[in-house]
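pinned: reference chain
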Amino acid sequence: VDPPGLEFLKVYDLLALEGFLRYAQQVQGYGVLEKTHAFWLCWWIHPVFLRRTVRAMTRGRPTLTLLRHGFQQLFESMCRVHSDVVTVIPNARVTMLARDPHSVTYEHTETGAVETLYCDYVVFALDLARCRDVVVDLDL
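pinned: its structure tokens
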């Protein structure tokens, strides 16, 4: 699921969802459809959420969705369920984030060791605006 989200919608004839996904993806700060990989559309906009929201909208009902316990519990649950394929490095001081090749260089806060991880996707769980000097291709 590597193409940009908008390209994914075109390929699979899903352009009717473009407006909704622009709102769900872009307004919340997850990235623009023209640049954000389709992986993130599938990851953040779950089909059950999409179905319920579209159903509510077509029936004229309000649509407000919140995470009862916030993103922290969501990330902890995903990491626990997928611990065999997800690497979690809490409290790491990230010193470089590069998207090509997909890598993250970080300093381990307990040992001081500097390591580089090569990966398919990175979830950078903090306000990126605070790290504008770390992410080399960040558009703010």
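why pinned: The first strand starts at residue 93 and ends at 99. Residues 67 and 73 are 9 Å apart (CA to CA).
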